[in-house]
Specification:
The chain is mainly alpha-helical. It is about 60% helix and about 10% strand. A hairpin with a 3-residue loop joins strand 4 and strand 5. The radius of gyration is 18 Å and the shape is globular.
Length: about 260
């Protein structure tokens, strides 16, 4: 038992990263290179079946808002000694012809927005809420953290030493099932509520850095919450998220902090 505890403590001490701005410590058993490789393959597989939107105006809007936020975030990271985080990002913002109100980001900066969420964003500011939130997941390396947590849970204490010796092969095997490569990429590795709150908070800060109106965020989430009552179920975009009331409460509490970063 002592040896198992020792291994776990050693892992937590040596395989630990921190989230920009929030400073929260996180477990990162998988290398950034492995996660990015999986992400790129997932995105390639997804794009083989996805239907790119034919709406030129809306595609330009998604790319414009996405690039504005990405550039602001990169500037902040560079100015604060996090150049390595910038180098890992290859931003791409894609609007797909899908009526589901959803959006998702892959590690490394691939962000996909469904046409179905645009009726709820209304404006560039509303879209910035969505894209800022997704960029936050990528910058905070939430996918790496969740994958690491899954590895820890699946392999347990006695196998951790073996796991770490053969980490590349094992993590790829596990990732293939956890990530759900291909068509399941949009729902891969659901984030925890802690990560969702963090993405909300960072998303507000990121959209403020790019000059967007952070007061749009609670209005957007209020519109999204109407989907729950209309359909009788939770939309995919919000399926693992905090309750509507708690989310909006936390967002309102985070607005003063976000305003300090306003462009």
């Amino acid at each position: 038992m002592k040896s198992i505890i020792t291994i776990c403590v050693a892992l937590l001490l040596t395989a630990c990263g921190s989230v920009p701005i929030t400073g929260r410590k996180q477990l990162t058993l998988v290398s950034d290179q492995e996660v990015l490789s999986l992400s790129n393959q997932s995105f390639t597989d997804y794009m083989k079946t996805a239907k790119i939107s034919s709406n030129a105006e809306k595609k330009q809007q998604v790319q414009r808002v996405g690039n504005n936020i990405a550039q602001a975030v990169e500037t902040y990271l560079r100015n604060n000694g996090m150049e390595s985080a910038v180098n890992q990002m290859q931003w791409q913002f894609v609007l797909v012809n899908d009526a589901t109100p959803n959006a998702f980001a892959l590690p490394g900066g691939k962000v996909v927005v469904n046409e179905g969420i645009l009726p709820y964003t209304h404006t560039d500011d509303g879209l910035a809420v969505v894209i800022g939130h997704e960029i936050a997941h990528a910058v905070a390396k939430h996918s790496n953290e969740r994958l690491s947590q899954q590895m820890l849970l699946q392999y347990g204490g006695t196998a951790l030493d073996v796991l770490m010796q053969n980490k590349t092969a094992v993590s790829r095997q596990l990732a293939a099932s956890v990530y759900g490569l291909g068509a399941q990429v949009g729902v891969m590795l659901p984030f925890s509520r802690k990560q969702e709150y963090e993405a909300d908070r960072l998303g507000l800060i990121f959209m403020a850095m790019a000059g967007y109106d952070v007061y749009t965020a609670p209005k957007f989430w209020s519109r999204m919450s109407s989907l729950t009552s209309e359909s009788g179920g939770t939309p995919e975009f919000m399926s693992t998220h905090p309750s509507d009331a708690n989310r909006i409460k936390q967002i309102n509490a985070s607005i003063p902090e976000a305003l300090k970063y306003k462009k």
